[in-house]
Amino acid sequence: MSSSSPSPEGSPGRKPGDAPAPRSPRKAHLVLRRIEPWSAMKFSFVVSLVCFVVLFIAVAVLYMVLSGLGVFENIIQMVNQLTVADGKPTNGINVASWFEPVRILGYTALIGTVNVGLITALSTLGAVIYNVASDLVGGVEVTFSEAE
Asked: Which residues pair with 88 in a beta bridge?
């Protein structure tokens, strides 16, 4: 009575040193039919707010570096030399006020706030427009594949 036992890998006829056959990666075909406008608005608001903070910090650091290097003082001196004739100013331009940190950072905050509002509104509007277009043509087809 001879009994044949299966090989250690569980398949008859396979040797212990054989490698398993390579498997092709799985693929999934999906269609993006709708983007929820409320979700797009929340996401774009948070991303634009983070970008605003990064912009504000970058401008503040750049201002400190340029101020430390004396760039603003040199610009003010050069403009004063060009606008002063015979020791008397030709017009009432106060160039030094242009480079005050409160003014620079205030304009940065104003521009950043406007950008947050515009990016949020345009992203929400983009989601609504995508939904209308998706109803007409069926959406965007996306194929996902497993990493090999």
From this structure: 85
Q: How far apart are CA 82 and CA 71, in angstroms?
A: 17
- Amino acid identity of residue 134, one-letter, is S
Q: Are 51 and 120 in contact (CB under 8 A)?
A: no
Low-confidence ranges of the chain (pLDDT < 70): 1-19, 21, 85-92
What is the predicted pLDDT for the residue at 137?
A: 92
Is this prediction's pTM over 0.85?
A: no
**According to the model, what pLDDT value does residue 130 have?**
95
Beta strands in the chain (DSSP E): 27-32, 84-85, 88-89, 140-145
The structure tokens 């903070």 sit at: 53
In whole angstroms, what is the distance from residue 93 CA to residue 80 CA? 9
Nearest in space to 43 (alpha carbons), one of 141, 138, 126, 142: 126
